[in-house]
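Narrative summary of target 7.
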Amino acid sequence: EDPYTLTELSKCEREIGNYEKAKIYIDKAIKINPLPQYRIRKGEILFCIGEHYQEAIEVLKDVLEEDSSFKECYKIIALSYLELEDYPNALRYINLAILNSQDDEYLYKLKSKILKYLNKPDEALNVLLKFYENYPDDMEIENTIASEYEKREEYGKALSFINKSLLKEKDSDKYLGKEIILVQMERYEDAIGICTKGLNIRKSIYGKKSLDYAISLNNLALIYYEMGALNDAVDIFNDAMVIKKDVLPKIHGQISIGYFNLGLVYDKLNRYNEALKNYRASMEIDNELGAYEDVLLTAEYVAEIYERNGMLEEAEAYRTLCSEDDVQ
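Modeled conformation, tokenized:
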């Protein structure tokens, strides 16, 4: 019956994802002693459960009415309104959260996201730029801004910010971001150089026989594919696939992606039998995984090969066979 012990039990259950049980313990603690700290935890748990957003809002607003110094409530209220798609109220409370914690980059990202839902993309970007102006030493903000410029297809600005981010920290994920931007700019040789740097970082951390290294190889192969160096792409895709098969079970999304990518490049090389073999292998795995939309996408590539080779009846039959109802 000790409320402190009950809150600690609640915390343990929450950390392992048992939110319903965490709620039972925190409710018992609140019944004994309704401290605002305990009620805040209840609000957080209700948010985590996923279907009690309005109740979480009411619990946290009650706390704020009694004592507005509990600034952590604002963020959870904003997140709850966001889940309820009440974007004006989400914006109102994220502004209050920022007012009380002006150096938290996550809050600015959240405000930017809310503004995009409100169809205010320029304001959304300006929020991030304002944070960068005030806190230029933040380790992630340039990377975040680069991503936003990339989505707007302003690749020059995206490249400028990702370069600034890499000056602070040479991270393989940031190299991947720069690589993607360079590919969009059709600067393939530069993209290969950046991808190779990221590949070497992953090799030094995870080793050559790791999934991370295989995924990096796959990214390198995609650059060669985009620039039309198809034979190089085939070799590197195959190298990545050998590693994936060594470290993953046969039925895995990354194995499916490997087969699909090989299908793409063989298709471009007009090596249709090999393309069909890999496309079908990808489809079989996706069907086992229940990824039916991916099955239908790949089926369309198979049907197009039949069409290009004048096999119209086979193409139509394949589309019919792989209709969504039949796949499931």
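The first helix runs from residue 3 to 15.
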